[in-house]
Every structure is written in C-alpha cells, then in structure tokens.
Design goal:
The complex is a heterodimer of chains A (about 190) and B (about 190). Chain A is built from seven helices and seven strands, in the order H-E-H-E-H-E-E-H-E-H-E-H-E-H. Chain A is α/β, with parallel strands linked by helices. In chain A, the strands form two sheets. Chain A has a five-stranded parallel beta sheet with strand order 1-5-4-2-3. A two-stranded parallel sheet of chain A has the order 6-7. In chain A, strand 2, helix 3 and strand 3 form a beta-alpha-beta unit. Chain A is extended and about 75 Å long. Chain A starts with a helix and ends in a 16-residue tail after the last helix. With about 190 residues, chain B is mainly α. The longest helix of chain B has 27 residues. Chain B starts with 12 loop residues before the first helix and ends with a helix. The chains are: A alpha/beta (about 190), B mainly alpha (about 190). Chains A and B meet through helix 1 and strand 2 of A and helix 3, strand 2, helix 8 and helix 9 of B.
Chain lengths: ~190, ~190
C-alpha cells in the first residue's frame, strides 16, 4: 500500500469519526425525529409549511388529496398524490409528520380516514390549501401603508417565495387601492418540480 | 455566499449549463483514467477478479458524504437546498434489478457506456443505444401503469430519517464499511491473481 493511499484512508477514518462525534455532541440536527404514535390533528399555514420544506423537516410527508389530474397540473414541492377515495398507495410511518392539502380548506379527519393509514406522529391540514400556498408563498404582496408587523411578515414570506420561485410584490398607493386578490387557479400555474 | 450556487441564483442559466458540461467532462475523464471505459474491467467485478468498480464507487460515496457533511457543518453549503430525490420503493427496486442485469450482461453502465463510446469502442456505442432505447420504452409505458409507477411512494427520504440516527453517526458507519470493504476487495483480488 502506498503512502498516499494510507494517508487517504487515515483521513477518511478521521473525518468519519469526527463527524460522529460532532453529531452526537450537537443533538437536534437532521435525523433526530421524535417518534410518537398519537394522532394530533391541526392546521398549519402555507408559510409554516414552506419553512418545513425548506428546512427539510425530518419525516415530513405532504399529501395532495385532489385528483391525480389536478396533481399533474400543479402540486406543492415534494408532495405526493393521494386522491380522496382512491386506492391507498402511500405507506406512512409512525414517525411521519403528515400535511394534507386540497384546493381550499378540507376536512382533515376525512382525508386521514381515506388514507387508511396507521397512526403517524402528527397530522396537519394546510390552511386554505393550494390557494393559500399560491397567495401567501408564491405571490405575497405588501400593500402601501402596511405596519411594521406586516412588513416583517412580508420580508419572511418574500424570502420563502423567492426560494420556491415565486414573485413577491411591493405595491405603491395606486396599485394597493386597485388591488384585489384574484383567486388563483392551479391550472394557470406553471408546473414546477422540486 | 453559500453553496449550492445554482440554487441561490449566483449563476446565469448559461453558466450553470457550462459548469454542468465541464463537470460531466471531468467525470468522464476520471472514469476513463480509472479504466472504467473497458467492459472487460467492469465485468471483472462480477467474476471477483477486478474490484476496481467497487473501490471507485465507494471512494466517491465516502468522499461525497464527508464533503457534504463538513461543508454543511462549516456553513459553506446549505443542506436544506440540496435536492434529495423522492423514493418510490417498488419501482426503484425493479429499476435497480433491471439496471443490474443490464450492467452484468452488457458490461457497461450508462456513464461508462458514454466513456467507452467517446473512446471509440463499438460495445460502448451499442450500450448507449440500449440506454436510450430503455429510456424511451420506460417513458412510453410507465405512465400507463400508475399503480406501479407510484407504488410505495415515500417522498424524499434519507437514512437518518429512516433509522433515527444522526447524520454523522451514519457517515461513520458507512466510512467503516467502506474501509473494511476495501481491505476485503484487495484480499479477493490478490487471491484471484495468485
């Protein structure tokens, strides 16, 4: 064995050992999902979900309960198609954190019953569904005369929006007066992969 | 600025494409210099007479794992922006099986087939034609069998999420397995050539 190969082997072993020590010394990093089995049904906002996707929340499973055709037109990054009433094709684990969404608000209990899944760690419905995502993440707007709190919320939404390829807009007084949120349609939105 | 630069819009589309071509050429050059453009060398893997493929691939895995982990640790790489392909368990198992059979029978995988073709080997050209034929057949048929195409969808999954172990501990285990594998591979090759 040459000196170079021996040095490479020792380097790999050292960096691997240090990686283990660093991970153990700083818990809370990726791969430390809490396990649990009690179903806890709640709602989350699109901004919260965008944060989770961006941060690669351990165990996150996003399920689109609309029809497969609607899913093909547009869906949230990393989501899987699980149409209501369709055959269950998605296996969920007890450490999964499940977020289900439809076009608008949905009945979380009905959606989970349709999945016929064993208990997962947590389950959430996406508030306002896909339309909420399109409004709050893909097309966030700051109206003229907004207060400091709104501006701070917009800054956070704008950062997430740019991450997901959205278009945040700051409107002047004239635009703000004329602004009414057009109800977006998923069929009008360019399909985007993750 | 933090990597991955393509994700944070640090480069124009043309620059990104140019970097992709450069990396592809470098990858092909490295494969050729490692001797992996020769089907005879690759098939030696299956006859346990030449385990170069095993050693090259495991070296690449260990280098990438350690590089990604430590770049993330020191804040040079934003791991939340690194794309993790989705898992579709059954289709990917079948795909892996088909890939393995094709690799063993033809002596080349898609990457090495391109390298072999680029160096003028006729078996390389034949393998490239088979690769594109396979892609065409899969593209035309798989979407007609959605029950299989989407079977056992698990979303983007990492070993950390499945095992609950921290990334660093998993890296330590993989590095250990690789180093042990290198020692076994060397012993097998010595025995084959004795």
């Amino acid at each position: 064995m040459t000196v170079l190969r021996r040095a490479l082997l020792v380097t790999a072993a050292s960096l691997g050992s240090l990686a283990a020590l660093v991970s153990i010394a700083s818990p809370g990093g990726r791969g430390t999902a809490e396990s649990g089995s009690k179903l806890n049904a709640r709602e989350i906002t699109s901004i919260q979900l965008a944060d989770w996707i961006k941060d690669r929340k351990p165990g996150l499973r996003i399920l689109d309960v609309r029809s497969a055709a609607d899913f093909d037109v547009f869906h949230l990054p990393g989501s899987l198609s699980a149409p209501l009433g369709g055959p269950p094709s998605i296996e969920l684990g007890k450490r999964d954190v499940v977020v289900v969404y439809s076009e608008e608000d949905l009945d979380l209990g009905e959606a989970l019953a349709s999945l016929r899944s064993p208990a997962v760690a947590e389950a959430f419905a996406l508030r306002r569904g896909l339309n909420g995502w399109l409004d709050e993440v893909m097309n966030p707007v700051l109206l003229a005369g907004s207060n400091t709190e709104d501006k701070a919320a917009f800054e956070k939404a704008a950062e997430l929006s740019r991450y997901f390829g959205g278009v945040p807009r700051v409107l002047d007084a004239t635009e703000s007066a004329a602004f009414t949120r057009k109800k977006p349609s998923s069929s009008e939105t360019r399909r985007r992969g993750c | 600025m933090i990597a991955p630069f393509a994700e944070v819009q640090a480069f124009t589309e043309a620059t990104r494409q140019g970097i992709g071509v450069a990396i592809g050429l470098a990858f092909g050059f490295a494969l050729e210099r490692a001797g992996l453009g020769s089907a005879r060398k690759l098939v030696g893997q299956f006859h346990l007479t030449d385990l170069t493929v095993f050693k090259v691939m495991f070296s690449a895995i260990v280098t990438a794992m350690l590089g990604v982990f430590w770049l993330g640790f020191f804040g040079v790489l934003d791991l939340s922006r690194v794309y993790v392909p989705e898992t579709f368990l059954w289709p990917q198992l079948v795909g892996g099986l088909v890939f393995g059979v094709g690799f063993a029978a033809g002596g080349l995988c898609p990457g090495t087939a391109c390298v072999a073709a680029a160096t003028g080997r006729l078996d390389g050209f034949a393998a490239v034609v088979r690769v594109f034929a396979g892609v065409l057949v899969a593209g035309l048929t798989l979407e007609r069998a959605p029950a299989f195409y989407d079977a056992a969808a698990r979303g983007p999954q990492t070993l950390s999420e499945i095992t609950g172990l921290p990334d660093g501990v998993l890296i330590f285990i993989v590095v250990g397995v690789a180093l042990l594998g290198f020692a076994v591979a060397e012993a097998v090759e010595r025995k084959a050539h004795a």
